[in-house]
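Lab notebook: predicted structure, single chain.

Context: the supervisor wants predicted structures on file for every construct in the current expression panel, including those that have not yet been purified. This is the next one on the list. No modifications to the sequence; it matches the entry in the shared construct table.
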Amino acid sequence: MLNSKQRAKLRAMSHELQPIIHVGKAGVTENIIIQAEEALPGHELIKGTVQQNCPVSAADAMNEIAEKAGAEAVSTAGRKFVIYKRNLKEPKIVL
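Prediction complete. Output recorded below exactly as produced.
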């Protein structure tokens, strides 16, 4: 569980990231969960975006992806969201 200072640090680090997960009109699918699970160990912090025609909000998509991928939901801003999962073997981000 992240505290508010850790969330603030991760939110600041996420500004420079490009979205690598794109949730479209099908909503959060199994392929999106797999994509997040594969990206998290290498990046630890990933940004995603919800397309305009998506039936779910960015907050709902972020929470669902984070829960199913075993990660932490960091923040949402508009249609973008940020997810964090610490790499236990080779951590890149020190909180």
